[in-house]
Amino acid sequence: MPFPIVDGLRALEIGSPGALRLRLNQLILDGRKRATAGLLLEYVRENEELESEGELLALVDDDARRIATVVVVRVETVPFIEVPWTFAQAEGEGDESLEEWREGHRRYWREYGESIVDQTPVVLIWFEVVPD
Question: Which of 66, 95, 113, 118 is the most exposed place for a label (fewest CB within 10 A)?
Fold first, then answer.
């Protein structure tokens, strides 16, 4: 199933629906979360192109309603083990070390049946909220 389109933009669905998405979306709206990670495998499965620098995305809630617009400022694909601490900090989720970030992401993706190894390709997306 392709990534949803909302108000003419590709949707940015952060985390899983429910409490996690609500918390992460609020971190974005508060200016604390400026990056997100995804698995390259998800793009391949959905036959989707990676986001590109300058692309506008619709940040959506659980009902696929746009709550903000973000602009992609950087996209990079790296092996899981090479995700830098600066990226983990930009995700703004309160991890206190790179190892804590790695364990949290391994656990999250494992819940969806994905086995993450050091060489698993991860898409790193940095973004900024576009003022209304």
Answer: 113
- HSE of 76 in the Cβ direction (CA atoms, 13 Å)? 11
What's the pLDDT tens digit per position in 94-128? 999 999 999 999 999 999 999 999 999 999 999 99
What are the φ/ψ torsions at residue 114 (nearest 5 degrees)?
-100, 130
CA distance 68 to 59: 5
DSSP state of 93: S
Q: Which domains does the chain have, with CATH numbers?
A: 5-129 (3.10.400.10)
In terms of Cα–Cα distance, which of 53, 56, 60, 51 is closest to 71? 56
**Pick from 70, 64, 61: nearest CA to 22:** 61
- E-assigned strands of 13-117? 35-39, 56-60, 66-79
